[in-house]
């Protein structure tokens, strides 16, 4: 018999879903081990460098699927390390969506109102602050001015960002060198460590089996810290409770691979994947028109030429987040930055005579890169993504040492999704091509399919066992003691950046996990303050959770 | 197989010609055959596409010979189909002029082509070489005048090799907020 380590709670993944649950469970007295398949970097480890092997490829995964490619974090801190820290709450109508199933997709217990106290917990913990126009970089200002010129509103987006430390370097996808981005490395994770949680990087969970006492044995491999294709060790850990938070591109794959030993999975495991309805357009601006039409000028007299400067998305227009509009026709538009490489290959040449995404005309387009502006659509897609059979290990076949892989996700956009994209493309053109400001083209879907940085819903909560893998407490149906708290639990596209909602759902799930752990003999209590000791949002939720804790 | 393809040099020329089709540049010397010379300034080849493709980190290196041979096979078939007479002194793909190279790469990367993922991968690495210099430290690449970073106008870092932009904002309100914005700054 092989000896196995044991713990009370085993958390798979250290992004929002893993870090938040690990903190609360450790602070409440449980023994917690976090297994993270990526490396553990911080502060000065985050390089300003596009070179293969620098932090920009160490912490990122780019998984090409069939019709959909997924960008996601691959490091301790998960998506919070590589994301742009935009943290809006999801609009009210999102929770009433029906999608393709003819009934409300979200559990009846969750609405914007009932989620609000949990959003507040996240806002206090990170913290999240509102962005002032004075700190909006040129690119966001340009988008705001163009929206205003076209009769639209535009908002600075709330962000988990310390503006005083931010240098507007736009390297935040490689991790923040200056600790300006309030990633999980600065709040929940150090607080979890302080309460005794262990975090083990480069530990990639492959599958789960059952133990004789009703718990689970988690089987992992240890990956080489440079070449993630190479396994350098393996092991198992037994746990009474498993929190699965490997991300919407990996959580269902681990469960699929566990099916032969755990028994049949709910139908919705690996189905209903949403790319958050994401779509990108690139505008190529005419600098003179920026000056003449919008009256914008930098201190040095140049109208714009500042695509490189900033901190990701800072300004969005929410005019189409109107609950009275039909489903699939609501979306937000957000100004965005993408670094060279990934941010250029899919951009298409307006009025191209030859190919749109490569060739001589594409090279000419690159000469005006500093006059580009990328606009990000987040819409209501149709949850049409389905994962095929799992690869031999991990969530995808790794092609490169780091970052690039081929996954089993299939995504064929429905007419509903395509209609939303077409409407948003037209809206972007209407705003940005007005009076000759720019020429706009959407990114091509013909190279690596559609493209999402916000994978969701591949193991989702819901009331209907036929179309949801988790109950409204995030427990995997028919597999008690396994909870899923990452983006895969979100039922569908949110029309805004989803990190805030993923985090709020994880906060909301904790009391139920605590109750389940207690039922399995773990001496753990709910009620930890914010990681920095703040108590106001904690005090606001305590009256709400007494029922859950008494189950 | 024509003699031109029996050497590593032949395969290198094919891969260079492919990268040059993705992002073209000017000829490196008067008799340069791989680079078609249809664009001023350097292209993907001068930017280091072959270095990126051959990098240990990228993972493409073990497949490059087979990919070069595959391009050749498709180029010969294309030439036969379109009745183009190939120059036996160079690989078939190199023998094609730029418009024909474009047409063939369009065909290979079309969503319906069964091998498209391989040809897309070659294109992706070519692009990453050009505008990200992925084979090289970015600060050093900029200092050395890397052609792609130079053409996109990528601004240089501070003296410590880190980027900071002290001047970054128009500094004023440029639009009205949505009327339903909540006190937390989110949509209602």
TrEMBL record, chain A:
Family matches, as Pfam families: DAO (PF01266), GMC_oxred_C (PF05199), GMC_oxred_N (PF00732)
Molecular function terms from GO: cholesterol oxidase activity; flavin adenine dinucleotide binding; steroid Delta-isomerase activity
Glucose-methanol-choline oxidoreductase N-terminal domain location: 67-271
Any coiled-coil regions, as ranges: none
Cofactor dependence: FAD
Keywords: Cholesterol metabolism, FAD, Flavoprotein, Isomerase, Lipid metabolism, Oxidoreductase, Steroid metabolism, Sterol metabolism
Gene Ontology biological-process annotations: cholesterol metabolic process
Tagged with keyword Lipid metabolism: yes
Pathway: Steroid metabolism; cholesterol degradation
Span of domain FAD dependent oxidoreductase: 8-42
EC number: 1.1.3.6, 5.3.3.1
Record domain Glucose-methanol-choline oxidoreductase C-terminal: where: 451-506
Transmembrane domains' residue ranges: none
Highest taxon in the source lineage: Bacteria
Family: Belongs to the GMC oxidoreductase family.
PANTHER family membership: CHOLESTEROL OXIDASE (PTHR47470), FAD-DEPENDENT OXIDOREDUCTASE 2 FAD BINDING DOMAIN-CONTAINING PROTEIN (PTHR47470:SF1)
Protein name: Cholesterol oxidase
């Amino acid at each position: 018999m092989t000896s196995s380590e044991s713990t009370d709670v085993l958390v798979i993944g250290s992004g929002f879903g893993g870090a938040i649950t690990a903190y609360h469970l450790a602070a409440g007295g449980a023994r917690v081990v976090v297994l993270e398949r990526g490396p553990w970097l911080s502060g000065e480890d985050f390089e300003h460098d596009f070179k293969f092997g620098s932090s920009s490829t160490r912490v990122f995964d780019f998984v090409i699927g069939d019709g959909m490619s997924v960008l996601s974090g691959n490091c301790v801190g998960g998506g919070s390390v590589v994301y742009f820290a935009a943290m809006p709450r999801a609009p009210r109508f999102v929770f009433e969506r029906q999608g393709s199933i003819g009934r409300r997709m979200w559990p009846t217990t969750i609405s914007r109102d009932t989620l609000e106290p949990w959003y507040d917990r996240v806002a206090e913990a990170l913290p999240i602050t509102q962005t002032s126009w004075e700190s909006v970089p040129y690119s966001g200002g340009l988008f705001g001015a163009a929206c205003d010129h076209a009769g639209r509103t535009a908002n600075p987006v709330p962000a988990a960002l310390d503006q005083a430390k931010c240098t507007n370097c736009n390297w935040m996808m490689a991790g923040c060198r200056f600790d300006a981005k309030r990633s999980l490395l600065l709040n929940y994770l150090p607080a979890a460590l302080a309460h005794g949680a262990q975090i083990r990087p480069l530990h990639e969970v492959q599958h789960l089996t059952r133990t004789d006492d009703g718990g689970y044995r988690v089987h992992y491999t240890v990956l080489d810290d440079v070449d993630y294709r190479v396994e350098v060790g393996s092991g198992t850990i037994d746990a009474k409770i498993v929190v699965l938070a490997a991300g919407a591109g990996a959580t269902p794959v681990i469960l699929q691979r566990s099916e032969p030993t755990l028994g049949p999975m709910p139908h919705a495991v690996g189905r209903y994947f949403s790319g958050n309805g994401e779509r990108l357009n690139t505008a190529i601006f005419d600098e003179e028109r920026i000056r003449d039409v919008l009256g914008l000028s930098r201190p040095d007299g140049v109208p714009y030429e500042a695509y490189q400067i900033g901190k990701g998305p800072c300004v969005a227009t929410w005019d189409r987040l109107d609950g009275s509009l039909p489903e699939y026709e609501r979306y937000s538009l957000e100004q965005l930055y993408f670094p060279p490489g990934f941010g250029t290959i899919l951009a298409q040449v307006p009025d191209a005579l030859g190919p749109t995404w490569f060739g001589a005309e594409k090279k000419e387009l690159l000469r005006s890169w500093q006059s580009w502006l990328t606009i990000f659509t987040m819409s209501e897609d149709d949850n049409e993504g389905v994962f095929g059979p799992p690869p031999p290990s991990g969530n995808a076949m790794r092609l490169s040492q780091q970052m690039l892989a081929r996954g089993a996700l299939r995504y064929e956009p429905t007419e509903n999704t395509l209609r939303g994209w077409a409407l948003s493309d037209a809206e972007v053109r209407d705003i940005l091509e007005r009076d000759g400001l720019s020429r706009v083209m959407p990114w091509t879907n013909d190279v690596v399919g559609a493209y999402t940085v916000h994978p969701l819903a591949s193991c989702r909560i819901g009331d209907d066992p036929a179309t949801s893998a988790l109950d409204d407490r995030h427990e995997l149906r028919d597999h008690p003691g396994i909870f899923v708290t990452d983006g895969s639990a979100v039922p569908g596209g949110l029309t805004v950046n989803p990190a805030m909602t993923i985090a709020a759902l994880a906060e909301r799930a904790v009391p139920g996990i605590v109750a389940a752990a207690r039922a399995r003999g773990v001496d753990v209590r709910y009620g930890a303050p914010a990681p920095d000791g703040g108590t106001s949002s904690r005090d606001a939720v305590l009256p709400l959770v007494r029922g859950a804790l008494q189950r | 197989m024509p003699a031109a393809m029996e050497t590593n040099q032949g395969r290198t020329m094919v891969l260079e010609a492919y990268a040059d089709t993705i992002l073209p540049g000017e000829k490196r010397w008067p008799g340069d055959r791989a680079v078609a010379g249809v664009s001023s300034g350097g292209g993907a080849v001068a930017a280091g596409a072959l270095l990126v493709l051959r990098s240990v980190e990228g993972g493409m290196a073990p497949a490059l010979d087979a990919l070069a041979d595959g391009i050749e096979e498709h180029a010969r078939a294309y030439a036969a189909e379109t009745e183009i007479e190939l120059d036996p002194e160079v690989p078939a793909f190199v023998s094609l002029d730029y418009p024909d190279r474009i047409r063939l790469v369009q065909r290979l990367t079309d969503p319906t082509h069964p091998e498209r993922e391989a040809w897309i991968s070659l294109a992706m690495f070519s692009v990453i070489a050009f505008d990200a210099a992925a084979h090289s430290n970015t600060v050093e690449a900029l200092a050395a005048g890397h052609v792609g970073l130079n053409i996109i106008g990528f601004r240089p870092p501070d003296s410590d090799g880190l980027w900071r932009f002290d001047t970054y904002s128009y500094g004023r309100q440029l639009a009205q907020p949505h009327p339903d914005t909540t006190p937390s700054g989110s949509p209602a």
